[in-house]
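Input chain follows. Return structure tokens only.
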Amino acid sequence: MVCIPCIVIPVLLWVYKKFLEPYIYPLISPFVSRVWPRKAIQESSDKNKGKIDCKGADINGSPTRGPTEISDKKKD
């Protein structure tokens, strides 16, 4: 059994994003841009900071042994 908020909250968020946000966001965007400056967003989007190379790792992130190449050919 699913609780009522687990049903109602996603439905309300979907209604907001689909129908209300296109009308409300243009009205509140000038105020949001004053409160939340663009400089803070640019500082946090440093491309080299926190970048992790995932080559050679399996789905769980642990390193794999052997070749990592995936073949689509059928084996007879």
